Amino acid sequence: MAAKKRKAEEPGIPEWVLTYGDLMSLLLCFFILLAAFSELKKPREFQKVLDAIKEAFGAEGGDSMIISLESMPSSPLSDTAGMLKIEKKVSKSDTNDTSTVGTDQTTSTLFNGRKWTIGKPMPFAPSEYELDEGNKEVIRELIAPRIRGSDKMFLILGHAWGPDDRLEGMEFMELSYNRAMEVRRFLIEECEVEKNKLSLWIAGDTQPLDTGAQTVGGMTNRRVEVFMTDVAVSELRPDAAGTGRSR
Length: 247
Hints:
Blueprint: H1 15-38, H2 43-57, E1 64-66, E2 86-88, E3 115-123, H3 133-148, E4 152-159, H4 172-189, E5 198-204, E6 223-232, H5 233-236
Parallel strand pairs: 4-5
Antiparallel strand pairs: 1-2, 3-6, 4-6
């Protein structure tokens, strides 16, 4: 029996040529994109492209942003190696920096709790800050004994009010400060009250009792008040007695 003749292969394109062509097409698209990105003129649009690519590939991590053209020495956003420059925004969760620790890591606020009026408000004559005998008597009999027998902090609050309080040329804050300082000085020097228990505050004309008072009633707005707080001296001054010990 005669051997069968081998069927001749039909002419056509080899399979490797198709693969090679696909690779060349991909490389061409890649270089076209590189060329387009190297002449970037619209960073916002490019940012949208990056976000879309990031979302498509499921990339994770911190946000990125394009460096603005104004911050670059030249308009193309590329370095000498042709790499795109992308600046990473560091979020609070990404930083490893630790906070600076001070010498005292705790603070206290005197107005952070309740307060009670001690004695009664002490009125002052217009533009005056010296204590008259009536105010001295209130301090000696009603205020000083409460302070000496307590371990709490006390607040001295000075007030001023009305055009008559400006006759001597002092501002409301300055006058209310002088009034509060006179009460503090009298408590310390004349009534032997510990100065560490006293805190001085000024209100100026911001806390009047009667905003419509122009004559006799206005006298109540030119006043000094003393309050007892619920803050212990030891909370603000661990060594109030001056022994040299710390908390």
